[in-house]
Specification:
The protein is of the alpha+beta class. About 25% of the residues lie in helices and about 30% in strands. The protein has helices at about 5-10, 20-30, and strands at about 35, 55-65, 65-75, 80, 90. The protein has a five-stranded antiparallel sheet, with no helix packed on it. Strand 3 (about 65-75) and strand 4 (about 80) form a beta hairpin. The termini are far apart.
Length: about 100
């Protein structure tokens, strides 16, 4: 059974609240750390910096047990991490549009 099928099956148990459960599951899945073994920021066009003449992607990453800002860049057709390769990463969250 796939993860999506497990989520759908679990949601069925919530009756009328199933749509809310599904929205919560969707949010949780979108906000998890991504292992570099599973995926890389350079695979996501929306994460590439449009203002940079070189292909560059900035992300939040776990590097040597610390949360850091990290960068991937393309050089001679190959992608590299700026420093050591992190174990996991997340897209940088969007800044709020209003002051709170």
């Amino acid at each position: 059974m796939t993860l999506q099928e497990k989520i759908q099956k679990k949601a069925e148990g919530f009756g009328k609240l199933a749509p809310l459960f599904l929205e919560g599951a969707k949010f949780a899945l979108k906000n998890q750390w991504i292992s570099v073994k599973d995926d890389l920021p350079c695979n996501h066009e929306e994460l590439l910096n449009p203002n940079d003449k070189r292909d560059t992607s900035y992300v939040v990453a776990i590097l040597h047990g610390h949360i850091v800002l990290s960068r991937m860049y393309k050089l001679n057709g190959k992608w590299y991490w700026e420093n050591d390769e992190p174990t996991h990463w997340l897209p940088i969250p969007k800044l709020p549009t209003e002051h709170q």
